[in-house]
Amino acid sequence: MGIRVLIADDHHVVRRGLLFFLKTQKDIEVIGEAKDGAEAVELAQKLHPDVVLMDLVMPNMDGIEATKKLKELMPSTKVLILTSFSDQDHVIQGIRAGAVGYQLKDAEPDELVNAIFAVHRGESQLHPKVTSHVLTHLSSGNQQEQNPLEELTKREREVLTEIAKGKSNKEIASTLYITEKTVKTHVSNILAKLNLADRTQAALFAVKNGFVEQ
């Protein structure tokens, strides 16, 4: 029996391309497709894949949250993130969430196949472009414990400020000229980085740390 793979990506063309390619690979079997993180978690519990190819930015539940859920519910299932984002924020969040590997969508086909086999064996598999980010983060020591705000990007700080003002995702999107989907991703990242449970805690945190006047 081949490695059972579940594909999670909100772009139909990407899913179709991966399905077509992986079907030609020996010892790899695609058993399902999910268009968002929530569906990925649901299907994984039903189909029990060995490896989930997980996109990061998806509606309903993004790849970071879905990876955390799978790590909690199905620890034997390996998550291989497959995304277009190579910046340190996304890389570190993905690894912290429990992903075994992190690959970019511009990887060569053979690299993706090798990564699937590697994470199935339980080996860490990082795209060369993201390795330096991991090393930089590790060398920073206890940066998050010292000041979690340093982990926030400029845009995440802007979103946090708007959250503190009581604005909805739609209002924040309009103010910052970005999509609601992007706002939702930023909110998820903010909560994860600051170890906060919800928007209310985020708003209180922002006020306490001087993002807006009390």
UniProtKB/TrEMBL annotation:
Keywords: Cytoplasm, DNA-binding, Phosphoprotein, Transcription, Transcription regulation
Keyword Glycoprotein: no
CDD domains: LuxR_C_like, REC_NarL-like
InterPro entries the record matches: CheY-like_superfamily, NreC/VraR/RcsB-like_REC, Sig_transdc_resp-reg_C-effctor, Sig_transdc_resp-reg_receiver, Tscrpt_reg_LuxR_C, WalR-like
Modified residues (4-aspartylphosphate): 55
Boundaries of every Response regulatory domain copy: 4-120
Domain HTH luxR-type as annotated: residue spans: 145-210
Keyword DNA-binding recorded: yes
Compartment annotation: Cytoplasm
Classification via PANTHER family: TWO-COMPONENT RESPONSE REGULATOR
Name this polypeptide is given: Response regulator
Protein's organism: Bacillus songklensis
Biological classification of the source: Bacteria, Bacillati, Bacillota, Bacilli, Bacillales
